[in-house]
Amino acid sequence: MTNAPRGTNMHEVRAVVVREKNAPATVETILVPDPGPGEALVDVLTCGVCHTDLHYKLGGIGNDYPYLLGHESTAVVSSVGPDVTDLKPGDRVILNWRAVCGQCRACAKGQPQYCFATHNATQKMTLADGTPLTAALGIGSFAEKTLVAAGQCTKIDDDVDPAAVGLLGCGIMAGIGATINTGEVKRGESVAVIGCGGVGIAAIAGAKLAGATTIIAVDLDPAKVELAKSLGATHGVVSRETDPVEAIRDLTGGFGADVVIDAVGRPETYKQAFYARDLAGRVVLVGVPTPEMTLDLPLLDVFGRGGSLKSSWYGDCLPSRDFPMLVEQFKLGRLPLDAFVTERIGLGDVEAAFEKMHSGTVLRSVVEI
């Protein structure tokens, strides 16, 4: 029932599980097997509380309950499978959900950041009674230990705050990557970001890192706009009070921004992004829409404005390339990853952290294990 090989040692650890749709996230004992071929067993150090985990809890991603939540993590490798040669016990790693296959058509074209066959651990972790768990994004790291594919481990230096750099495992990487990788922001360009949650503010930090000179933060909430300005935005627009399209044009000489990033993911905000960009500018969608949303744009406007309309999935990142580089930028003081850590909590505080998400008062709650 566990899908573990005969004779595999099972580790009893504490972990955060949600058993059914809308059920509370609770701390339970789970069983984690020793690693098999291509796998790594890791001791989790930190795990950020991401909106994706809340989507799992609410049934917004699937119905494969029970879910083992958590995915935005740093960890230390405990043991590896018999065929794993590029990891060893003691390695400090950031966990990622893009373990590239190296063989699919994207990888064959030299674009592994778009790998179409990313993989996870083969064995299942289970509840104490043997019920298989579905690991969030193939990771499941609200746990003292978790089992992942070896390719989901990206080695980093161990002289940095794990709570800060672990956020690169998902949301912060999505925002930074939307700017640097997908939007291809260049020195001296103008960037507007609509939506100043964790991903949006990470996009702003990425724009500053890339050398943008005009960085405009847009949000309904004045407090979020002010926070964005403290982390790299040069201008702020409270869209509850001001038309954001007109404001962005006014701040860019009447033309619109070179790159506009929609970190909300709604038809209304996407239209704002579309019309707030300069001719031949780029729009990047990184906010996640819901299935029922549709977009209505005049096709002549799409043609006539030129440029490009892009979507960014995980910031189009390649973990082996991007994580170490961004950790180094953090160490050099150019990327304030620690500013995204609003609070440090324990495993038993995850459900309360989900409630805080609704208030918009935190960028990231981070579980320290």
UniProtKB/TrEMBL annotation:
Its cofactor is Zn(2+). Belongs to the zinc-containing alcohol dehydrogenase family. Transmembrane segments: none annotated. One of its GO terms (molecular function) is metal ion binding. Residues 25-367 form the Enoyl reductase (ER) domain. SUPFAM superfamilies: GroES-like, NAD(P)-binding Rossmann-fold domains. Gene3D superfamilies: Medium-chain alcohol dehydrogenases, catalytic domain, NAD(P)-binding Rossmann-like Domain. This is S-(Hydroxymethyl)mycothiol dehydrogenase. It comes from the Bacteria. PANTHER family: NAD-DEPENDENT ALCOHOL DEHYDROGENASE, S-NITROSOMYCOTHIOL REDUCTASE MSCR. It comes from Sinomonas puerhi. The keyword GTP-binding does not apply. Its EC number is 1.1.1.306. Keywords: Metal-binding, Oxidoreductase, Zinc. InterPro entries: ADH-like_C (IPR013149), ADH-like_N (IPR013154), ER (IPR020843), GroES-like_sf (IPR011032), MycoS_dep_FDH (IPR017816), NAD(P)-bd_dom_sf (IPR036291).
